[in-house]
Amino acid sequence: MTAIPSNSFPQPNPAGPGPGPSINTQSQYGQQINQYPVTSSMYGESSPIDGGYPQGMGYPGGSNDREFDRQSRIVSQPAALLDQSHLRPGNQAELLSQDRTLQLYRENAKKTNDPELIFEFSVFMIDAAKSMISPNELENDTGGVVTTKTPETVKLIEKREELIKEATSLLKRLADRGYPDAQYFLADCYANGIGTVRGRQDFDRACPLFILAAKHGHPDACYRAGTCCEHGWGCRRESAKAVQYYKKAAVALHPGAMYRLGTAELNGALGLNRRPKEGVKWLKRSAEHATEEFPHALHELALLHERGIDNVLFVDFEYAAELLAQAAELGYAPSAFKLGECYEYGKMGCPVDAALSIHYYNIAAQQNHRDACFALTAWYLVGSPGVLPQSDTEAYLWAKKAAEMGLAKAQYAVGYFTETGIGAEANSQAAMKWYKLAADGGDKRASKRLASGGSKGNGAGGVALDRRLEMEAMKEEHKSKGGDKDSCIIM
């Protein structure tokens, strides 16, 4: 088994798929292919961009429960405080606007010193601000930065900044009073560039707040304090302290902390001795408490059961596939992609099943997993009776999506499709650009194609491409290589 660096861990894609190719979501078994949600945190990355950790946990308590409490708190106020006329039945019924809800929250917050209510109000303001345009998002249709701002855009930006300023001010007051939820939430804002100078991550302010909240026993804060100490984000790099915080979070059954301790024990990282048996125990505990944000232990345990560890873990393909399915149900793209391969080629004891293969590839592709996107290209090239109609256009679109994410074999495929007019209008010049990108990425076929001079317009002077041979080569490469090789977390 190959080892990966101890500080390199799988993490959810930070963004969901944008408007992209469509897919037939009806399987031959009558099952609807689920469009799984993207497992991103409230504010995106929980660590610097180059960090290798699962994304942030969002704010404490869970968004669903907190929204329920939030609404319960509003409607439970006396009628004199809240005008509920908008709730009357009939054609005139209407929902509260965001501005009206903010006004009601603000009125409630002014009439109480309840820290929980003030905290809820602050969270709501941050949520509202996040839904507005930010200066970093001012881009035109071609991806360039817009130099001129419309009055409406300027007004939105100003309103967003005002909300963030008001929310962080209230959070600071609560944090100074020792309210752990506010300490953690404010730290999370700073760590993700909210309420900071130019929207930059500020761990110098975030780390001390994580540590303060951790001292109050806040599980998420303990985990985040551990990541700060491990990597030196806003503090000195101290592995021993990181382990202390991880263990404190693990006692509270934090899946991310248990996963990190498991990988550390397996690899002998963070100053710990290499103890595979203890590492597997931590991974199993993390898997038992896996969430959409922390499904990683399920995936790693599946890989370990696929290979086995002498005197520690036995090979069990059936259980490995079950673990992958659990992770895929939580929306974890690498697990979904691996299951797609298993059902396409009959690996790990899975039957060959086109419907399930496409189903799992789709889960991963919708989260911008580039190899899954290219796998759908292969499926669309041939189609599957009763499951997926053959479509050159869809094959081209999925290949282009994978190519734009830097997959060399997909870049070659787009070059080929563009050169021969499969799924798109033929354009030899554009094809050569894609071949150049693919060659730079190490694709040997692209290098040969460039050396041969391409089709040169209508084929004069160039080497003609045989569609049948090219298609077979693409499918064979997909079958032999699949996606990126799975990395086992221990030797």
TrEMBL record:
Residues 1-67 are annotated as: Disordered. InterPro entries: Chitin_Synth_Reg (IPR051726), Sel1-like (IPR006597), TPR-like_helical_dom_sf (IPR011990). The keyword Ion transport does not apply. SUPFAM superfamilies: HCP-like. Pfam families: Sel1 (PF08238). Keywords: Repeat. Residues 22-44 have a biased composition (Polar residues). Residues 11-20 have a biased composition (Pro residues). The keyword Repeat applies. PANTHER family: CHITIN SYNTHASE REGULATOR SKT5-RELATED (PTHR46430:SF1), PROTEIN SKT5-RELATED (PTHR46430). This is Protoplast regeneration and killer toxin resistance protein. The lineage of its organism: Eukaryota, Fungi, Dikarya, Basidiomycota, Agaricomycotina.
